[in-house]
Amino acid sequence: MLKNQLHDKTALITGAASGIGRATALLFAREGASVVLTDVNESAGQTVVAEITKNGGHAIFEPSDVTRAADCQRVIERAVRDFGGIHILFNNAGIIRRASVVELSETEWERVMAVNVKAIFLMCRGVIPIMASAGGGSIINAASGWGLAGGPRAAVYCASKGAVVLLTKAMAIDHGPQNIRVNCICPGDTDTAMLRNEAQQLGEANDKFLADATKRPLGRVGKPEEIAQAALYLASDASSFVTGTALVVDGGGLAGSV
After folding, report:
1. CA 149 to mean position of chain CA atoms
2. Residues facing residue 58 across a β-bridge
3. Which listed residue (61, 83, 146, 157) is catalytic?
């Protein structure tokens, strides 16, 4: 296996305090990247930084609400100030609200769209000029299998992740000439706190909900570390001719979809 695939790179990861973001931050640091973590959960984010530095890596944490332009700009400026640039951006922050359109409030709709879509726009708007001036970079957006196929009682989540897929493709077209690759990952159900929160929202027992989530060809839910490996591929030179793609990592969950 290749080592130090991200040597001399700086990676900015949103939603980095837990789940897929945490796993990706740890992996990127092991692969030689300097990592800038941001999240609303400062204590958990600092814990991830401590774990990285304890193992000889380089990482900083800057708290933010990525739906706010000023917060995004502050994180970006900190990354450039401390590490000299941004070569990789992983827009990982995301939330879910399990409800149909008639069950949703306007506030819930706006919040999910803000975290899952607007935050990507804000981060990319600030980071792309930095990448372009340095000769290129890699942007990875967190979409979902439900950005490619609909799901029950997940109207705003599906809408937001579908938007991420097409925003990814549009940015890949616009910024390919600047040697900036833009891709998204479409995970299936992954063993995170957010997955368990879905069970609570639906009023289902965790055991039953998780058992239903395993009904896919590989017969299990994914691990955050497995999604992180997909992010590493898209961040590294191994994917140097890959842009505008939606990489499905879901244990075959969508394999039988039309």
Report:
1. 19
2. 34
3. 157
Burial of 193: CB neighbours in 10 Å, binned 0-12, 13-18, 19+: exposed
Residue 9 is predicted with a pLDDT of: 98
pTM for the model: 0.96
**Percentage of residues of the chain with pLDDT beyond 90:** 90
**What letter represents residue 203's amino acid?**
G
Please compute the mean of the pLDDT values over residues 116-127 and round it to a whole number.
Answer: 98
Domains and CATH numbers, the chain: 10-189+223-240 (3.40.50.720)
Residue (of 54, 186, 180, 82) closest to 125 by Cα position? 180
- Give the model confidence (pLDDT) of 15-46 as tens digits: 999 999 999 999 999 999 999 999 999 999 99
Q: Is 233 a catalytic residue?
A: no
The position carrying tokens 């332009």 is 69
Distance separating alpha carbons of residues 74 and 222, to the nearest angstrom: 33
Return d(Cα 197, Cα 11) in angstroms, integer.
28
